[in-house]
């Protein structure tokens, strides 16, 4: 019997693979990260949209150029959830300055508006039915509460999704004036009553607020 055979519970030592520091860094991607999106994320966003919407109805809330448009104009109103560097869920929003949504709201960002128009929430197919959509929405709404100028969030959705958004605290506002092809939508809204402390510190830039809120909320919801 060989020496190795006589010691069955001792596994042979394997020398560690020789890797450069650059390659090692690839393995240190955060397991879970929530951050604002940027234009480099646009393709990943659109891939999720393509599967979630285009393969189902032939269209999607934001086309690739519109994703880039909003991520250029107002990245601070987007939020992406990444698992080991891969986008698994996202929200894209922009500011709107009227009581109700109209067709213009689909393409415009109104920097002086106090309403956040949530254009799209989507979760990657393989990560659905795990509660990620509601968790991301919750974090997004908590983040909005830190922004001094934001008073409410609105979205338009198909009727089948009304209960989903109601569970996140949205209320029905009424029939939406916007139609896409033969689809009709319900408009829903969520009141944003921010933290007084954060509102008083309105000079803080939005990204700073995002970091502060994200850290607090990371602790709260453990992601
Ligand atoms: C809708 C969506 C964001 C939900 O996210 P999720 O992480 O899968 O959410 P959950 O797993 O926590 O499901 C939450 C609830 O929503 C329901 N739900 C999910 N997708 C639904 C849909 N398309 N229609 C109706 N209800 C839906 C689930 O059945 C679940 O109900 P329950 O709490 O009674 O079990 C996700 O399914 C998705 O990205 N869908 C495709 C894109 C889309 O439709 N986005 C919304 C319009 S912008």
TrEMBL record:
Domain N-acetyltransferase intervals: 32-203
Stored Gene3D superfamilies: 3.40.630.30
Biological processes per GO annotation: circadian rhythm; melatonin biosynthetic process; response to light stimulus
Molecular function terms, GO-annotated: aralkylamine N-acetyltransferase activity
Keywords tagged on the record: Acyltransferase, Biological rhythms, Cytoplasm, Melatonin biosynthesis, Phosphoprotein, Transferase
Principal location class: cytoplasm
GO cellular component: cytoplasm
Keyword Secreted recorded: no
Catalytic activity: a 2-arylethylamine + acetyl-CoA = an N-acetyl-2-arylethylamine + CoA + H(+)
Region of interest (Disordered), residue spans: 1-24
Subcellular location: Cytoplasm
Entry's EC annotation: 2.3.1.87
Lineage: superkingdom: Eukaryota
Associated pathway: Aromatic compound metabolism; melatonin biosynthesis; melatonin from serotonin: step 1/2
Pfam families linked: Acetyltransf_1 (PF00583)
Family: Belongs to the acetyltransferase family. AANAT subfamily.
UniProt protein name: Serotonin N-acetyltransferase
Record organism: Cynoglossus semilaevis (Tongue sole)
């Amino acid at each position: 019997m060989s020496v190795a055979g006589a010691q069955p519970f001792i596994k042979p030592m394997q020398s560690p693979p020789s890797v450069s520091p650059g390659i090692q860094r690839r393995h240190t991607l955060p397991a879970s990260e929530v951050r604002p999106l940027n234009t480099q994320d646009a393709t990943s966003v659109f891939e999720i949209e393509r599967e979630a919407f285009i393969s189902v109805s032939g269209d999607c809330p934001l086309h690739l150029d519109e994703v880039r448009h909003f991520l250029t104009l107002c990245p601070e109103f987007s939020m992406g959830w990444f698992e080991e560097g891969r986008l698994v869920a996202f929200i894209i929003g922009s500011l709107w300055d009227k009581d109700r949504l109209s067709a213009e709201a689909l393409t415009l960002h109104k920097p002086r508006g106090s309403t956040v128009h949530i254009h799209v929430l989507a979760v990657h197919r393989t990560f659905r039915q795990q509660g990620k959509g509601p968790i991301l929405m919750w974090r997004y709404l908590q983040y909005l509460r830190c922004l001094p100028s934001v008073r409410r969030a609105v979205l338009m959705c198909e009727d089948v999704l009304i209960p989903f958004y109601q569970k996140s605290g949205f209320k029905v506002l009424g029939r939406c004036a916007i139609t896409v092809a033969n689809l009709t939508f319900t408009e829903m809204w969520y009141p944003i009553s921010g933290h007084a402390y954060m509102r008083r510190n309105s000079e803080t830039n939005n990204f700073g607020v995002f970091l502060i809120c994200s850290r607090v909320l990371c602790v709260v919801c453990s992601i």
